Amino acid sequence: MKRFFSILLCLSMILMMASCSGIKETKPSAEAFVVGFSQVGSESDWRVANTKSMATAFENDDEYEFLMENARQEQENQFTAIRRFILEGVDFIVIAPTVEEGWDTILAEIRDANIPVIIIDRSVAVEDDSLYLTNIGSDFLQQGKLAVEWIENDTPSDKELKILHLQGTIGATAQIQRTKALEDAVRTHSNWKIVSQLYGDFTEAKAYEVMTTYLKTNRDIDVLYSENDNMTFGAMRALEEAGITYGNGGQVKIITFDATKEALQYCHDGKINLCVECNPMFGPDVKSLIEKYRRGEAIPRHVHVNESAYTTQNITQDFVDSRAY
Ligand code: AHR
User: Fold this and answer.
1) Interval between CA 44 and ligand 1 midpoint (Å)
2) pTM across the whole model
């Protein structure tokens, strides 16, 4: 009997501790609205912030159960995760696609299972765009145009400009559109030249590797157009090791995309010339689109998040400090 009471006491103490420490009771999934999210990976600081924004939006709400699968930058892993979501009978699927091509079959499978889909961040290139409800993310072409505009304003029209181009995952919307903006501009500026296009896969390690190799035989660069911050950090390390100066007053002017806190700090300190913003914090917007859909309200076909561009001249330390990602 004594033993029974001490077990009872232990149990009630555990329950009390759980309620005091804010440990959440998990609802049985039969009651919750289940969202399956196939995320690209964790290749960049941007991606980590996007994952956090998505998870926070859903995980703090008892009405939802949020299942996330990390595809480690492989489209095949996304297909496997999505098929698992279908088998599990989730109520909604959110996909951040690695690349644009190759989605027709899997999206048709989701439609056959009567599960609504939202595409976030990058886009998909499918023949039937009624296969998904909406696409929310950045206007990547506009980001590239902001970068090009900055180069135009910064470069005298008679000066020959040698641009080194670091590219992200080939076939991803962020790569396709940022590359398009630059290549279009080079076609219309006879004094601009892309000296090389290096593949950095949106990661710091890959960019450092390809830049280190490139700089062993090529040092004549005026501008580095790097398609994300993490590749820029890898490139900066390679430039330093090669003894090449960069940033304000340096040999190589640096343009980067994302505008994470770390990149903005470098920009503020004069090490990066231009940070083009790519906002990853749209988890709450994805949730509100899903809620609109659940209430039977119309949702727009495409939603672009607000973005801007920053130079040493227009950012303050307070702004850098307040950056959420
Ligand atoms: O699709 C958004 C891009 O993907 C971001 O620029 C990059 O950092 C991420 O990996």
Assistant:
1) 7
2) 0.90
